[in-house]
Backbone:
């Protein structure tokens, strides 16, 4: 584990003065890292923000392209330096005395789908803790934007932000960095094969978020959420392709939530109504999707969230498949029974089909779901 402190030389060189505090978020590097991080030149030791080894390494490398990160330096917290740090679990915990465990965020650029795909491994790890006589529950530090996705998870006692304080970390006996390599998570859970655990990924929208959207989305019309955009442009679909869906289901109400797009009303003439200006959090997204009769999306984070909510989801696979050594494409049917793929071959590769055929397949599946 590493503490985050200010580099006074860089601080003075960049600002021309010597302020004693700097604050930033890491949303530029990951849109789900929303925690405001305050670092002081002369901090109280217990208030120092803490980063995992992997996260500190990634942030150090990111300094090359992110000048504001050069204000910060990372110093390892060691017992021999007087820090009563928790024991770090590396590859096994069978010989250790049972105690409180904190899973510490270890991945700067984790996407929404990547985070949900960790859930079967976390559940399996909790089961192994229980079988070994350890507490079933553990604390977890994660990207702040993901906190709502952990609503109702019985294996979590406490949700900490991506950079908890020294004081928060010291409340635990052990720290385990998680989520960088899925095979390591499998080994920690003592799984010889993923089929040995429940792979079904389930989440629930927090009740307060659903209540916020209840009246707005209470109409009796069929409600269809369309997500046509992806960070990978090869996955994105066009307005023309959406027009065919609207023409096929003219009585349905179409919605979307276009990331960082503050345009009110329809996203384009005749296009889906953009809900982003009314709610920008993942809790909002979960609540919105929970009211939908159908979600149609490119292969992006929205597909994972909708299917994890058990909403009928048509996922258009195009562009490139990002996966953890085929963990995701091989098991997507077990992860998400409500998901129906379009554009995948039988062996989980991107199919070579025309946009017209892709469109026809989507419309056929829409009729199956909506009648």
Residues:
């Amino acid at each position: 584990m590493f503490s985050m402190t200010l580099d006074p030389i860089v601080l003075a060189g960049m600002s021309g003065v010597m302020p004693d505090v700097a604050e930033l978020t890491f949303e530029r590097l990951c849109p789900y890292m929303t925690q405001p991080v305050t670092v002081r030149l002369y901090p109280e030791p217990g208030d120092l923000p803490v980063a995992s080894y992997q996260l500190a390494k990634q942030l150090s490398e990111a300094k090359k392209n992110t000048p504001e990160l050069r204000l910060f330096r990372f110093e390892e917290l060691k017992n021999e330096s007087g820090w009563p740090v928790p024991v770090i679990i590396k590859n096994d915990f069978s010989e250790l005395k049972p105690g409180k465990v904190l899973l510490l965020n270890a991945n700067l650029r984790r996407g929404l789908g990547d985070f949900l795909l960790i859930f079967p491994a976390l559940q399996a790890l909790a089961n192994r803790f229980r079988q070994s006589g350890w507490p079933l529950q553990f604390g977890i530090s994660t990207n702040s934007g993901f906190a709502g996705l952990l609503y109702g998870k019985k294996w979590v006692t406490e949700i900490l932000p991506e950079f908890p304080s020294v004081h928060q970390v010291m409340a635990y006996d052990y720290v385990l960095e998680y989520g960088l390599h899925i095979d390591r998570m499998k080994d920690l859970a003592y799984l010889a094969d993923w089929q040995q655990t429940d792979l079904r990924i389930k989440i629930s929208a927090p009740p307060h978020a659903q209540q916020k959207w209840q009246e707005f989305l209470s109409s009796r019309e069929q409600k269809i959420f369309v997500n046509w955009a992806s960070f990978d442009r090869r996955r994105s679909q066009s307005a023309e392709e959406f027009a065919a869906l609207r023409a096929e289901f003219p009585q349905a109400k179409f919605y979307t939530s276009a990331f960082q797009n503050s345009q009110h009303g329809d996203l384009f003439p005749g296009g889906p109504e953009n809900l982003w200006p009314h709610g920008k959090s993942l809790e909002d997204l979960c609540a919105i999707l929970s009211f939908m009769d159908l979600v149609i999306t490119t292969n992006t984070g929205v597909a994972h969230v909708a299917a994890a909510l058990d909403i009928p989801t048509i996922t258009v696979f195009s562009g490139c498949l990002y996966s953890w050594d085929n963990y995701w494409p091989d098991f997507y049917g077990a992860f998400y029974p409500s998901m129906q793929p379009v554009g995948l071959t039988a062996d989980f590769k991107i199919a070579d089909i025309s946009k017209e055929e892709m469109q026809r397949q989507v419309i056929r599946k829409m009729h199956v779901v909506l009648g």
User: Anything to note?
Assistant: The longest helix spans residues 355-370. The mean pLDDT is 90. Residues 207-370 form a domain with the Rossmann fold fold (CATH 3.40.50.2000).
